[in-house]
Amino acid sequence: MADFSQLEKLASEIEAKASASPDSSYTARLIGKGVGPCAKKLGEEAVELALAAVQKQHTETVKEAADVLYHFLVLLKAAGVSPQEVMDELKRREGTSGLAEKASRKDD
Predict the structure, then answer these.
(1) What CATH number is given to the structural domain containing 93?
(2) For burial by CB atoms within 10 Å, which of 3, 46, 54, 55 has the most?
(3) HSE-up (13 A, CA, CB side) for residue 75
C-alpha cells in the first residue's frame, strides 16, 4: 500500500500558507482569487494529466498527477471543505460497489 503521508503534509502546508501574503505565496494568491479560479486551475491540471496519460508520457503523468493533487487540496481549502470530510465520505462508501453508490445518488 502506498504511503499517503505526503498528502497530509501538503494539506497542512496549504492550510498554513492560505493566510500568508499573496505577494509571497502562490497558494495564498490562488485561494484569494476564490473558488471559481481555483476550480478552473484544477480543471486545467486535470486535462494536462489526462493528456499525458493518454500519450503514455510516464514522467509527465507523474508530474501532472502531483499538480492535480496540489490544486485539488487548494480547491478544497477555497471551498471550505476539509480533506477529512472527503476521507470520511470515502470511508462511508467503503464496501459499496461503484455502481450501487452511483445509483443511490438522486441527481445523476
Answers:
(1) 1.10.287.1080
(2) 46
(3) 18
Rounded CA separation 105/102 (Å): 6
Within 10 angstroms of residue 61's Cβ, the number of other Cβ atoms is 18
pTM for the predicted model, two decimal places? 0.87
Domain that holds residue 79: 5-103
In a domain? residue 108: no
Half-sphere exposure of 44 (CA within 13 A, CB side): 8
Q: Provide the number of structural domains found in the chain.
A: 1
Give per-residue pLDDT as tens, 27-38: 999 999 999 999
35, part of any domain: yes
18 touches 77 (CB < 8 A): yes
Residue with cell 476550480: 39
| Contact present, 78 and 35 (Cβ < 8 Å) | yes
49 is a domain residue? yes
